[in-house]
Amino acid sequence: MRVFIFGLGYVGHFLAQMCIENGWEVTFATRRPSLLLPENCPYTLIDFHNHTKISEALREASCIISTVPPDLKTQSDPVLAQYQDELLQTNARWIGYISATSVYGNYDGAWVNEESACHPSSETGILRLKVEQQWKVLYESHRLPIHIFRAAGIYGPTRNALEDIKNDRVTHAVRSSICFSRIHIHDLCSAILKSMQNPTPGEIYNCSDDRPAPAADVQQFAAKLLKRPPLEEHSLENAVLSARMKEFYQDDKKIDSSKIKNALEIKWKYPTYEIGLQEEIDSTSHIRIYFKNLVATCLNIRVLLKILIRAVIRSFFKKFHH
C-alpha cells in the first residue's frame, strides 16, 4: 500500500509510523522539506509547492489523506486550493480528510452524532464546515472515495495535560460545567488505518473517546498523577482568557463516536482520559527505570574496573619486587 499524507504535523507523524509498521510506503507533502531525515528514513518528503513531484506521487498512491487545517488568513483549504485538479485525476482507492468536531457548534451539553445539525459558532468551526463541504463535493459530484473524520481534541505523547502542567503552560484550572471531548492520537490513527483497509466512500465519522469531561477535571487528574497539589481554580466568569480560549469555551457538547466503532468494529485503546494520561505516566516511568538501571549498571562496571585495575597494579608491583 502506498500512502500519501499532506502535512507532517502531530497527526501526520503518528499516522506515518503506524503505516510503516504495517509495511506500507509513506510519502509526505510538507512546507518543511528541508527537515533533516535520519539515515535510512522510511518515508519520503516532497515540498508542498513542488507540483510535478506531488502530481506523480498522487497518481501512484493507494490512499491519500490531508491532515492540513484550513488557512484562516485566506479562508480556504491549502490542499484543495493547490491540488484539487490533481486529486480529481487520482486512482486512489481511499481519500481522507481530518476535520474537527467544532463544526457542530454549541449543544448546551447534549450528545451529538453524525446526524446532528452543524451550526458552528466559532470562526474556526465555520471555516472547518465550509472546507468539509468542499471535500464532500468531490465525492458527490466526482465520486472520489472521500472519508471525513471529525476529530475531537487530540492528545497523546508530548501533547497532553501532564506536559502542560510540567511546562507551566497551565498554572490554574478554569472551573466550568462545560464538557469537552478528546481522542488519543493512537486511537485516531488506528481508526484511520482501519478505514483505509475498509473503504466506505462518502462517510463522515466522529472520532472521540467515551468520556467527555470539563477541562478542569482533566487538569486536576493530571496534577494528581504528577503528585502535585491541586491546581488553583478560577470560575469561568472570573478567568482571564485569551481570544482563543474564549472561543474554546463557547461550545458545550458531548461527541458520540458509536458510528465508527460499530462500522469498523473498533474498540478504543484509550476510552477515557484517565486511561490515556495514566499510560503517559507509566511509559515515562518505564523510561526513568530503564535509565536508572542503566546508570546503576554503569556505576557497577566502573567499580569493577577500579577493582580490576587495582588488582593488576598490585600484581605488577609484586612481580617487580620479586
Topology readout:
Layout: E1 2-6, H1 10-21, E2 25-30, E3 43-47, H2 51-60, E4 63-66, H3 78-88, E5 94-100, E6 111-112, H4 123-140, E7 146-151, E8 153-155, H5 161-166, E9 172-175, E10 182-184, H6 185-197, E11 204-207, H7 215-225, E12 232-235, H8 243-248, E13 254-255, H9 258-263, H10 273-321
Parallel strand pairs: 1-2, 1-4, 2-3, 4-5, 5-7, 6-13, 7-11, 8-10, 9-12
Helix pairs in contact: 1-6, 2-3, 7-10
Provide an overview of this structure.
With 322 residues, the chain is an alpha/beta fold. Helix content is 44%, strand content 17%. The protein contains ten helices and 13 strands. It has helices at residues 10-21, 51-60, 78-88, 123-140, 161-166, 185-197, 215-225, 243-248, 258-263, 273-321; strands at residues 2-6, 25-30, 43-47, 63-66, 94-100, 111-112, 146-151, 153-155, 172-175, 182-184, 204-207, 232-235, 254-255. A seven-stranded parallel β-sheet has the order 3-2-1-4-5-7-11, with helices on both faces. α3 links the parallel β4 (63-66) and β5. The termini are far apart.
Compute the separation of the termini in Å.
75 Å
What is the radius of gyration computed over CA atoms, rounded to a whole number of angstroms? 25 Å
The ordered string of helix (H) and strand (E) elements is EHEEHEHEEHEEHEEHEHEHEHH
What's the count of strands? Answer: 13
Low-confidence stretches: 286-296
Helix content: 40-55%
Class by SSE composition = alpha/beta
Strand order of the largest sheet: 3-2-1-4-5-7-11
How much strand?
A: 15-25%
Q: Outline, from the CA principal axes? A: globular
Mean pLDDT: 90
Largest sheet: 7 strands, parallel
Number of helices: 10
